[in-house]
Automatic annotation (TrEMBL):
Organism, as annotated: Hymenochirus boettgeri
Stated name of the protein: Ectonucleoside triphosphate diphosphohydrolase 1
Quaternary assembly: Homodimer; disulfide-linked.
Pfam families per the UniProt record, alphabetical: GDA1_CD39
EC number: 3.6.1.5
Entry's Gene Ontology BP terms: nucleoside diphosphate catabolic process
């Protein structure tokens, strides 16, 4: 039985798993791109004491899975490049035994909200491409925000070795030491951590039993709070102030210009409440590069006024006190890595200073220094850095004290931090609920101990026998 008790979406198509699996492939269909991850099983599968490792990864060119909706042949071709690579990496005799899973995240959750039929068509179109490969295709589906949070938490703690460490007799006595997971995508963001405090809202509560230890986990996925959707919302707030279709935006470096179609901007369900009918069809964004003003605008998307629980993060969502250490990955890592802020010793105040300095740099200077970085990413680092700070501080409640508890993680032991590994471990039943039985001593030590105790016993018997005979000898001597 799968160990992830509350995640009920085991094998997508109820297909039995291949018997001699040695490899597994997971496709992460995110909002901005799709990635293909190839994993290899440890040699000792039954014991499950080895770690499943990522042996390769490939980013599909293009604009995410929803591009299948506009141009299936072109989208199919770019996916094929990564799947062809998987065929090269996995030995031919293992390919039929290799399960392939596709999980689509928040970008597809949004598309489904807009047009459920189109979302289904996209999944079946991707499914047809994947079925044309010799692997064992297990299905394509949109995973829930709760799953995305939970699988991300499982991935990082599995790779960090925390579950096994907690499963020994000493680990079971201690408070469980796990890392909380902070995942920032393009369309949604997830926060997941073990909480000692009661989780007041059922939908945020998960219970896991992994390697013989129970975990009560808090999780929440905020749809529309991924960094691309947050940027859209931030821009949409300024549209009513547009002057001749031009808006001044403090979240872009000064000198930066971008043209945006309002039809495209408003097409997202995340902007539903900010649409205005009088908006010009095209707007020109002009950066002014001001961290403080950018922060003020970004904070507008966090509603801190309503809370029906004892405490909330924002938008009336329950969140218990932050506990323990956290691993922040995906876009958290991409952005903080670019800004050179991943070192744990850098204080929150210094991080703010660094983001402020970056925002104040003229665009021309930034462009000259980083000519090889994609312009879309480069132009958005001021916004992204500011957003990350607001989300962590204003949204989730991190502060100068517990900032040191956040580690920005790209890869852990060679595998990317993200939800995909946890998803595959669950669907292939690779994490047992109970610790596999392992005898306390090896066979050799057992035999050795038996021999030792037998010799000891013979020695004790001999000593007793000799000491009982002694008085008689002495008596003889006296006579
Ligand atoms: O190298 C990079 N630098 C900056 N941002 C990046 C880089 N690579 C990906 N991103 C961004 O990270 C975010 C995560 O993308 P993803 O497609 O996984 O989102 P999703 O899982 O929410 O759908 C997106 O905003 C994407 O644009």
């Amino acid at each position: 039985m799968g160990a992830v008790a509350l995640i009920t979406t085991a094998v997508v198509q109820n297909k039995p798993l291949p018997k001699n699996m040695k490899y597994g492939i997971v496709l992460d269909a995110g909002s901005s791109h799709t990635s293909v991850y190839i994993y290899e099983w440890p040699a000792e599968k039954e014991n499950d004491t080895g770690v499943v490792q990522q042996i390769d990864a490939c980013k599909v060119d293009g604009n995410g899975i929803s591009s299948y909706a506009h141009d299936p042949p072109v989208a199919g071709l770019s996916l094929q490049k990564c799947m062809d690579k998987a065929r090269e990496v996995i030995p031919e005799q293992q390919q039929r035994e290799t399960p392939v899973y596709l999980g689509a995240t928040a970008g597809m959750r949004l598309l489904r909200l807009n047009n459920a039929t189109l979302a289904d068509e996209v999944l079946s179109s991707v499914g047809s491409t994947l079925r044309s490969y010799p692997f064992e295709f297990q299905g394509a589906r949109i995973i829930t925000g709760q799953e995305e949070g939970a699988y991300g938490w499982i991935t990082i703690n599995y790779l960090l070795g925390n579950f096994l460490e907690n499963s020994g007799w000493l680990g079971r006595l201690k408070q469980s030491a796990t890392f909380g997971a902070l995942d920032l995508g393009g369309a949604s963001t997830q926060i997941t951590f073990v909480s000692k405090k009661e989780i007041e809202s059922q939908e945020n509560s998960l219970h896991f039993r992994l390697y013989g230890k129970s975990y009560d986990v808090y999780t929440h996925s905020y749809l529309c709070y991924g960094k691309d959707q947050a940027l859209r919302r931030q821009i949409a707030y300024t549209i009513p102030d547009a002057n001749n279709s031009t808006i001044l935006d403090p979240c872009f470096n000064s000198g930066y210009r971008r043209n945006t179609s309002t039809k495209d901007l408003y097409s997202s369900p995340c902007i539903a409440q900010q649409r205005i009918s009088t908006a010009p069809s095209n707007i020109e964004i002009k950066g002014t590069g001001n961290y403080q003003l950018c922060k003020q605008k970004v904070e507008m998307i966090f509603n801190k006024t309503q809370c029906t629980y004892s405490q909330c993060s924002f938008n009336g969502i329950f969140q218990p006190n932050l506990e323990g250490e956290f691993g922040a990955f995906s876009a958290y890592y991409f952005v903080m890595d670019f800004l050179k802020l991943t070192n744990e010793k850098i204080s929150l105040e210094r991080v703010k200073e660094a983001v402020k300095t970056h925002c104040s740099r003229p665009w021309e200077e930034v462009l000259k220094e980083f000519p090889k970085i994609k312009e879309k990413y480069l132009s958005e680092y001021c916004f992204s850095g500011t957003y990350i700070l607001s989300l962590l501080e204003n949204g989730f409640g991190f502060n100068s004290e517990n900032w040191k508890d956040i580690s920005f993680l790209g890869k852990i032991k060679g595998s990317d931090a993200g939800w995909t590994l946890g998803y595959m471990l669950n669907l292939t039943n690779m994490i047992p609920a109970e610790l596999p039985y392992s005898p306390p001593l090896s066979h050799g030590s057992y035999i050795g101990l038996m021999v030792f105790f037998s010799i000891l016993l013979v020695f004790i018997i001999l000593t007793c026998w000799l000491s009982l005979r002694k008085p008689k000898c002495l008596q003889k001597g006296i006579i």
